[in-house]
Structures are given as C-alpha cells and as structure tokens.
Amino acid sequence: MFATLLKRELMLARRNWVGILIPLFFFVMVVSLFPFAVSPEAEFLQQIAAGVVWVAALLSVLLSLDMFYRSDYQDGSLEQLLIMASPTQVALSKVTAHWLVTGLPLVLMSPVLAGLMHLNYSPDANVATSHTAVMMLSLLLGTPTMCLLGAIGMSLSLAASRNGMLVAVMILPLYVPILIFGSAVITASLTNSGYNAQLAILGAILLFALVLTPFAAGRALKVAVS
Amino acid sequence: MGSNNSNLEVKGLTISRNEQILLEDIDLAFKAGTISHLIGENGAGKTSLMRALAGLLSLDSGEVFWNSLKSNHPEANFSKVLLFLAHNLAMKHELSIAENLQFYSALRGKRASTSDIQQVATELHIESLLDRNFAELSAGQQHKVSLCRLKLEQTKLWILDEPFVNLDAQTRDWLSQQLMSFANNGGVVIFTSHQAIEGLKIHQRVSLSHQQEVSA
Amino acid sequence: MANASKSFGRWFHQLGSPKWFYQKSAKWLPWLWIATAVLLAFGLYYSLFASPVDYQQGNSVRIMYIHVPAAALSMVGYLAMAICAVIGMVWKMKMSFMAMRAIAPVGALFTFICLFTGSLWGIPTWGTWWEWDARMTSELVLLFLYLGFIALHSSFNDRSKADNAAAILALVGAINIPIIYGSVKWWNTLHQAYSVTKKGAIAPEMQTPLFIMIAGFYLLFAIMVIIRLRLEIMNREAKSKWLQEVIS
Asked: Given strand B20-30, what is the order of strands in its sheet?
C-alpha cells in the first residue's frame, strides 16, 4: 500500500516538474545573493558558507511543502487517501516523495553552491579540502528531518484560514537543533576539528523524527479533513 | 441475521460544527441489500452525517458499527469496504483518467485492468477519453469518471453525496441501475439527492431536520 | 484507596464541566488574589530592600527576583499546555482544550517578561541588552513556539479543529523543547561562555525571597489563566442556557 501511495506522489511530482525545479532555483538564487550583500572575498564567504547554505536549504524545503499537500486537500483526494489507507502511511508517503523530489536534489545541487561560496577555499592552493563532501553529508542527514517536521506544520495549516507564512512561523523554531548541528558539522570541518559527533547527533535526530513525526503528521492530516 | 450480512449501524450519534449541534443522539440502521435516501434541507447535516459515517468527521459521542464491529476496529476492515463519493471528485488533474482510476483500485489491493476500465468507460461513453488528462474533460465528463469507481472497486458500502446532480438522463438511469444491482448483491447504499430519481427503488428514507435551534 | 480514586474521578469529571468551573472559579478568585498580593508584596519588599546587594553586580541583581520566576513559569506554562493537549486528545475533554488555549498567551507573556528583564539585566552586566546566552536564546525560541501555537489556533474558523490542530503542535513543541535546549546549550559553549546565572550556590539570603517570588508568580500565573479560561468559556458557551442565566 505504501508503494502504491509513493508511486502516485512521484507520478504527480513528475507531471509537475516545473514546480519541483522552483525550490531548486530558489535555493541557488538565495545563496547567490549573499556575495552581493556582503562581499565576494573568498575567505569571508567561506566563513559564512555553512550558515547560508543551511538556511537556504531550510527555506526551500519549507516553500516546496505546499504542492505535496495543498492540492490533495483541495480536490478531496486527501479524504479518499485517509479513508483507504492509514494516516501514518499517507503522511510517510508524502514525506518520502517530498524528500526524494526536493531534499535529495538539494543535496546534489549543494556542491555548486559550495563553489559559489568558496567553501573549498584554501590559502595554500596545493592543499585539497573535503569541506564540500562534508557539507553534502550534513545536508543528507538534515534534509529528511526538515521534510518530516515540515509535514507536521503543513498538515496542521491545511485547514487554517491563513497559511503560507503560518507554516514557517510554526516550524522554523523546531528547525533550530538541526540548523545548529548541521552548520556545526561544516564549521568543524573548516577548522579541521572532528565532526563525527555532530554528524551522529544529526543522524540521531533524524531517527527520532522518523519514529515520531509520521504519526503526528498523520493525525494532523486527519484533523485537516475533519 | 446472518454473520455474512453487511450492516451499517449508528448508535447515539451526536455531531456538531462550530459549537453548534447538528445531529443529536441519532440511531440509524442501514441493512444489507438496501438503498437509503437521506433527505433534509441544506444545512440539516446530511453531508456531515455521511462524513461521520465514513470516519472522516470526529463524533461528539456515539459509535458507528459495521457488521456489529466498531468501524474503526481493524477487523471490521471498514477502509476496504467503504466507497465514499463526495462533492469534490478527488481526481488529480495532471493524471489521465485511466491513471486516476487505476490508483484508487490499486489502493484497494487490486489494480483495475485496462479492459475493466475500458468496459465501464464504454458504458458511460467516455471510452475515447481514457488517455486524456482529467483537467481536459468537461464537468459532466469528470463526474462520469468518478462514477466509474463504483464498478472498479470491490466494496460493500456506498456512501454517495449528491451522485445524481448534473447528470444527463442516460447516465442517471445507468447510475440507478448500478445502485439497484449493488443492493441486490447485498451491498448497502446511502445517498443524498434533492430530486426524486425515477425508477430507483428506495428501501428507506432518512429525514434529517434541524435538531437544535437555540432561540426557542 | 478505592474511595480516593473515586473522588479523584469525580473531581476530574467536574473539572471537565465548564459550568462547574465557571461557578466555582468565581469563588476561588478573591482568595487567590489575596494570597498572591500578600506573597508578591512580601517577596518584593524582601527582594528589593531586605536582601543583600551582590558584590559583583550591585543592585542590578534584584532583577533576578522577577527574571527567574518568569523563566520558571514560561517553561512550566508550555508543559502545562502540552499536558492539557494530551488530556484533551485522549479523553476528548473540551475544558482541557480551553485551558490549553487559555494558558498560551499567559505563557507567552511570562516568556516575554523573562526576556525583557533578562535584557534589562544584561545592560549593566554584559554592556548590551542582547547577548546570545544559552538560556536567553532558549527563551527566545520558546517565545517563538508560543507565538506559533497562538497563530495556528487563531487561524481556524472551526474551534474544535483549531483545538485539535493546536494540541498536536503543543505536543510536538513540548517533545522538541529538551532537544532545542540541549542543542542551544551545546552551541553556546562552542561560541562563548557568557552567562547571567552563574553556577554555584546562591546565598541563602537571596534564596528565600526568590522562592517567595516564585510562589507568588505561580499564583499570578494561575489567576491569569483562570481569568482567561473564564473568558474562553463565556465565548464558547455563549449560547448555552446556564451561562445566560448566570449573566442575567
């Protein structure tokens, strides 16, 4: 049943491919604004790269939530899904599709942004650095958690009379821990100190979220259609 | 009453919207092989009752039973048994008719074959449109697509909210036929309709009126 | 034992009745006001005049007697909200949801007081009104959580939907608070080590007035929640007969 649900989500996403590219464009554009706003100096950009990339990823995940939930709510499909499948499964299928279609591409796109932000800059041109790989790893562990928490916020706001900003206001405070550890991973790599512990914590948060949030998001979907 | 009989029962049902009680302490029974027509003016709570029966609306009190088991009991298997067609057609605009119908039947556990879909579509004269996207169809055609689900999904209980509205005479007759043959095979039909349907044999009329009026 | 659980059951049931609560709380309020006034007057006198001056911070330490109780209540408030959310969801108790809704703005207010007094305290201590101190940052995130809850709850036309949705958010928030607090603390040690509330035993002459103030704040919090809850009941039960009789 989960496979059927997931297949449908992915099929819908494929038909909406422009909608899927928009969060990616957004991701790139937001990051590329920073050199204009602060300074194009490599050393300086490298310092803020971790934070900028992570915040941009957070925002684009939040902005892309809408299309996975809103239209199903509006055309009545969500009711049908909840009648025929368990709410937890419905929520999990949406989260999985959302991550596969926006989270994963964000991770894959991030090296480009790392380049824009001179993340791999090193005063000694002969020394190769692995900061970009570390950043990808941190995003790989962080983006699923963003999708999971976002699912709760989105589901809760479906039936609300105002939305859009509402999801952000509810969910952004919950993103604080992963933001802290996610960018700390990159910062640790930049200062050549160990980052395994931070990665492990990101992973632990992901597992914790994976266990609890689909249930909460499922309940939230039930409330939305009630 | 045999245990194979499919019965929907409601005991002590109370539902409210916005602090306003719509239905209070209602007992209803819908027996296997019957067609029930819900009657009531707009706002009397017909749609709410249907949504409550379908398990979408949370009840203030009361229970819904399917075959003497609570409808949310796993063994009642209610989600497999129930087909609920609401006002909005619950079809995705970016998918073709066939894809939409296949998805719902697959979710029931048995994916409808192309020939099955072809057959129902032919009965409703939309067979040439199967590969079109749902968005490209006219409102009437879209409605017909959602009616195809009745024949493609193996269920025992149909809850249909205004299924006859905006249908041409031919499709109306087709739908009446479907309801009657479904009931003859032991199914339970509950539907709402503002107009009387010619040729449809109705076993039970359930009239809902405003239960709670505050100003006395 | 059986008797005790029975009487608890009855008490729990009565608490679930808006009518019972509305009528009883009218009798509680004056007593609560008196107790609060006495505690706060005594506590304020004690903390502002009778307690010693901190050898490092001077008189500015007296802000602590407002700041710390407000901080305590800001967290207790969120916890209480989450507990109300669970009770409301499990037992479908409307009163519990009303209490949850009533606590939210009061909790947010206490969080704001905590942040405000913390900033005031920061001016002489840190030389700036905002420092990314771990506790202050956590309080800020807590304020955001409260505001998110209030924003969600007031975005629905249907109250019962609002209750159910906001209850889920309160619960998710409550589970997240320890994680947020832990991560902010870790992040803070990474960057700097400013802290208003230094570890170590607090002088006993300061402890007593602090405890009195905390007790006073608890009562003040309770009063404000009860008043808001009564308003909430008036709003929601406006059409019920008993309320119309009580008012007229």
From this structure: B20-30, B8-17, B61-66, B69-70
Query: In this structure, is residue C22 part of a structural domain?
Result: no
Report ipTM (2 d.p.): 0.91
Domain assignment present for C19? no
Q: What is the pTM of this model?
A: 0.90
Q: Which of B107, B154, B155 to mutate to test the interface with A (most CBs of A within 10 A)?
A: B107
Domain that holds residue C82: 30-50+57-247
Question: Is the separation of the CB atoms in B78 and B52 below 8 Å?
Answer: no
Cα B55 from Cα C97, distance rounded (Å): 22
**DSSP letter (8 states) at residue B126:** -
Q: Collect all residues with Cβ–Cβ distance below 8 Å to C59 and sequence separation of at least 6.
A: C53
Q: Is A200 on the interface with C (CB under 8 A)?
A: no
Domain count across chain C = 1
CB proximity A219 to C under 8 Å: yes
In a domain, C14, yes or no: no
Alpha carbon separation from A185 to A195, B91, C67, C133 (Å, rounded):
5, 44, 34, 21
In tens, the pLDDT along A33-88 reads: 999 998 889 888 998 999 999 999 999 999 999 989 999 999 999 999 999 999 99
Instruction: Sort out which chain B residues have CB atoms less than 8 A from C239's CB and list them.
Output: 19-20, 214
Q: Taking CB atoms and an 8 Å limit, are A173 and C144 in contact across chains?
A: yes
- The residue of chain C nearest to residue A170, with distances taken between CA atoms, is C148
DSSP C100-148: HHHHHHHHHHHHHHHHHHHHHHHHHHHSSS----HHHHHHHHHHHHHHH
